[in-house]
Write a structure and sequence with these properties.
By secondary structure, the chain is of the alpha/beta class. It has helices at about 1-10, 15-20, 20-35, 50-60, 70-85, 115-125; strands spanning about 40-45, 65-70, 90-95, 110-115, 140-145. It has a 5-stranded parallel β-sheet, sandwiched between helices. Strand 4, helix 6 (about 115-125) and strand 5 form a beta-alpha-beta unit. The two termini are about 20 Å apart.
């Protein structure tokens, strides 16, 4: 995991990727608007990188916590949120494989972004139990496979 974290911290600019791939960003926002309904939901953005989607959801009035493996991306998220005049509830540097640290009752909506190679083993390892909903929750997932390069 350290190798992946180092790559995101030193080599990769996720904020600019969503400028280059604007269609992905626009379609994802459309799905958010359709499926993440309600007022001031508590949203956990897992692997949200520099916070582009977190910021959008915060602009819609939701209380968003951003969890990402990259410290640099979290710093970018803080800066971009400030520039947009929004506040995220929390910025957590962490591994998506440690999702059990979050109480099931704490969040009403989840967004997972990232690459299949990073998240696949976490879901297979049983960490998906956080999403077993006894109440109405929404889960949006964006995975990039090896067939769809990040850049």
């Amino acid at each position: 995991m350290e190798e992946i974290e180092r790559w995101y911290d030193t080599e990769y600019d996720e904020w600019e990727r969503l400028v280059r791939h604007r269609i992905e960003y626009d379609i994802t926002r459309r799905y958010f608007d359709e499926y993440i309904t309600g007022e001031r939901l508590r949203v956990l953005d897992i692997g949200g990188g520099p916070g582009r989607y977190s910021i959008y959801l915060a602009e819609q009035g939701h209380e968003v916590t951003l969890l990402d493996l990259s410290k640099r991306h979290l710093e970018v998220a803080r800066t971009k949120a400030e520039e947009r005049g929004v506040t995220l509830k929390d910025y957590i540097h962490g591994n998506a494989g440690k999702l059990r640290i979050f109480s099931r009752a704490r969040f009403g909506s989840f967004h997972i972004g990232g690459h299949v190679r990073v998240h696949k083993r976490h879901m297979q390892a049983g960490h998906s139990d956080i999403f077993s909903a006894k109440t109405n929750r929404s889960v949006s997932v964006i995975f990039h496979s090896a067939a769809f390069p990040a850049g």
